[in-house]
Amino acid sequence: MVSNLSNSQSSSSQADTTSQTNQAHAHSHRRPAPEATLAILGAGAWGKALATIARHKNHQVRLWSRSSEESLEEVLADIDMLVSAIPMKGVATTAAKIQEIGLPDYVTIITATKGLDPETTRTPAQIWEADFPNHPIVVLSGPNLSKEIEQELPAATVVSSTDMAAAEEVQTVFSSSLFRVYTSPDPLGTELGGTLKNVIAIAVGVCDGLKLGTNAKSALITRALTEIIRVGTHLGGQTETFFGLSGLGDMLATCSSVLSRNYRVGYGLAQGKKLEQILEELQSTAEGVNTANVLVKIANREQIPIPISRQVYRLLNHKITPQEAVEALMERDLKAEFCDLF
Questions:
Q1: Collapsing DSSP states into helix, strand and coil, what is residue 134?
Q2: For 19-48, what is each residue's pLDDT tens digit?
Q3: Which of 181, 203, 217, 306 sees the fewest Cβ atoms within 10 Å?
Q4: Where are the alpha helices (DSSP H) in the chain?
Q5: Is the overall model pTM greater than 0.70, yes or no?
Q6: Residues belonging to the active site
Q7: What are phi and psi of 136, to 5 degrees?
């Protein structure tokens, strides 16, 4: 992958090179999966949920955050896998710190962050790949509401990498009777599905907050999926990925549960609350807010139509009211459902 999302052909070529590099390391120095030691970075709800899953399989887990008593160097000592579950805003700085500390090439890096970097428009995996080109990078994403996982309710997810041996190893580590893990060779599509749906969850929250009904909500989610596929495939993701767990599956979960922070942002906006008030009440990160801003930057640069996401962006930036956003979408030019010019 490349340093930003502006060139899908270069991204594909880079991915092939990365795959060859990763395969060359062959993972020969790793301990067997039953003995895996994991460092999970990020002690928020998602990091704790991933720790719950790993411990269910009796793996050794070191959960770290900036407020931890242990230093990052201590947490990273003699690990098999590094799991990044930190908010998007901390990915680049954390990766740079770990690069300074050093990490053996055999350590698999698993990124479970959903977002886009506001400065470079890169995905989390692209940031990790840039700093750790010799490491296998695996994306973990799916319809995984943290609270349900911590309650040990059944769930499924996708682990995706250009290095399938690494993806299969991660699959083995995390799979259990409570957590079913599938593999995919499309890390970019897997990441984009999980990232872009956060913007749509805000839109659906608005829809429910305004009490627009089931018809409107169903239409919104269906057209939003078309929008995500349009963006994702333009940037290099594979179409089928967006119909899978990390695309449609994750969108359905995030758009249908009050456990979703992004959904709650939209719902609160529809009730007339200020964005700043909503985020303060959440006391946690709603990645869709930042993602909407970065997505519009990408769409403007690449000339990709994103009518739903653009209205979310305008709403978040105080340019329109929720009611005006609905009117703008309903009054768009008429067209065929499936056409080249969406």
A1: coil
A2: 444 444 444 445 545 779 999 999 999 999
A3: 217
A4: 8-25, 45-56, 72-76, 91-101, 124-131, 146-150, 164-174, 187-209, 214-234, 250-254, 261-270, 275-282, 287-302, 307-316, 322-330
A5: yes
A6: 197
A7: -70, 130
